[in-house]
Each structure stands twice: as C-alpha cells, then as structure tokens.
Amino acid sequence: MPFRLEIVTAERIVLSDEVDQINVPGAAGRMGILPRHEPLLTSLIPGELDIIKNGERTPFAISGGFMEVLPEHVTILADTAERADEIDEARAEAARRRAEELMRERRSDQEMLLAEAQLRRAMVRLSVARLKRGGRRAGPGGGLE
Q: How far apart are CA 40 and CA 6, in angstroms?
C-alpha cells in the first residue's frame, strides 16, 4: 500500500508520486518512512534521500529542509533536491575543490562554516552522482565505502 510523496523546492516540484518507502537524512539520523507512519515533523540535513517504488531505489541528493509525515502523505520541503541523473559530476567535483580551498584559507569562523556546508553539499552530490554509473557511495568522511 503506497503513500503519496511530494518533494518541493523553491524552484520546482521535484517529485509527486506514490511510493512504497523513503529513507531520509534526518537531523536525528537516517529515518525510514513506510505507509501509515505516525505523524512527524522534522528537519532534514544534507544527504542522500532514497525513494523505493516497486522494488526499485531512486537516490536524490538533498541539501537540507523539512519533512512532514502523515499516515498516507509525506511532504519534503527541500533547499535543493536532485536525482542522480540530474547531477553534473564535473561541476560537483569543481565545487568540492573550491570548498576545500576555502577551508584551507581559514578566514573567519563564519566563512569556515559556509565552506564546510558547501563541502558537505558537494560530497553528497558526488556520492549520489556516482550511484548512477554504479560507483560506490562516499562515506561520512568523504572516503568511499
């Protein structure tokens, strides 16, 4: 018995479909959501969002946001959300290198936090992009698992 999933960003409706399960990067850790889940409102952190429908897994890279879970409907309001096939791996790699360079410059604390957030987003995008070509996903420290 599937449930309705909507993923929305400021720019577009990314997905509106019936799905069997989702796994999300919640602020308190990864969470699995199945049909008839208890109501829940939570924040999301940058990470991989997995959607399972008819036994097939579709990964998305999200950069944070919020999720509302109702028994038969889930809404994700994401800062950004991209399917693996939408990610330009070369651009994501360039963004990773830029963020690492900013971190090495060690300017203000605020700039360091911004660079760390940019690095996390780039690493998530790279990890999800590599899944489309059968690559391994990046681990928490950026290394491959």
A: 15
| 126: in domain | yes
Do residue 106 and residue 78 come from a single domain?
Answer: no
CA separation for the pair 87, 81 (Å, rounded): 10
Task: Identify the domain containing residue 116 by its residue range.
Answer: 87-132
Domain check: are 110 and 72 in the same one? no
Q: By the 8 A CB rule, do 79 and 64 touch? A: yes
**76-92 pLDDT tens trace:** 999 899 988 887 778 88
15 — phi, psi (to 5°)? -155, 140
Asked if residue 18 and residue 65 are part of one domain, the reply reads yes
58 CB-contact burial (10 Å; exposed 0-12 / middle 13-18 / buried 19+): middle
